[in-house]
Amino acid sequence: MVRENFEDKLQVLKQQVLIMSEMAKVSLSQSLLALEQQDQTQAQSVFDQDNKINQIEDDINDQAIWLIAKEQPVAKDLRRLVMTLKVTNDIERIGDLAVNIAKSVLRINNEELPVEKQQVLTTASVVEQMIDLVTEAYVEEDLEKAFEIARIDDQVDRQYGDSIQKMLTYMTQHPSHISPITQLAFISRYLERAADHTTNIAEAIIYLVKGKHVDLNN
Fold first, then answer.
1. b/e code 23-62 from CB counts within 10 Å (16+ = b)
2. CB 152, CB 129: distance < 8 Å
3. 136 within domain boundaries
4. Whole-model pTM above 0.85?
5. Which structural domain range is residue 184 located in?
6. What is the pLDDT of residues 141-158, one digit of tens each?
C-alpha cells in the first residue's frame, strides 16, 4: 500500500510536468505567431502564461523535494525525482525564452522585416517539433527518441548560424534597418537556446533510463 501511494504521487508529478510542458509550448507558439503576424496583442498574451508556468514549477519542485525527504527513494525512483527537478528547470527556461521572443516582437512593432524572418520561423517550427518529440520520449521513457533530439538540435544549430550570417549581410547593406534585424537575430538566438534546453530534457530522460549522464550538446 505504501509503495502504491508513492507510485501514485510520482504519476501525479509526471502529469504536472506534462501540463507545464504544454503551457511552455503554448507560450512559444503564441510568441512565434506574434512574430509571424507582427501582432502586439498576441505578444502581450505571452506574459500572463509565464507567471502560470513559474507557479506550477514551484509546486512541482516543492512536491519532488518533499518526496525525496519523506520517502528517501533509491535507484530509479530517486533518479526520477532528480530528473523532475532538472526537467522543470529547462521547461521554465523555454517559457522565459518565449517571453524574450515576445519582447523582441514588441520592440520590432510594425517595422518591415526581410525575407530572413521566414527562415527564423522555419527554425521555430523545428524547435516546436523537438518539444513534441521530447515530450513523447518523456512519457514513454524512449531512449531512441531522446537521442534523436540531439540530431535535430544539430540541424537547429546549423540553421541558426546560417540565419545570423544572412542577417549580418542584410544589416551591412541596409543600415537603416539595424534595429528590427537585431531583434530578429535575438529571436533566432532564443530559439537556438530553446533547442538546447529541449536537449537537456532528453539528457535527463537518458539519465533516468540508463542511470548515467550524457552530453548531447557536444
1. bbbbbbebbbbbbeebeeebbebbeebbeebeebbeebbe
2. yes
3. yes
4. yes
5. 2-210
6. 999 999 999 999 999 999
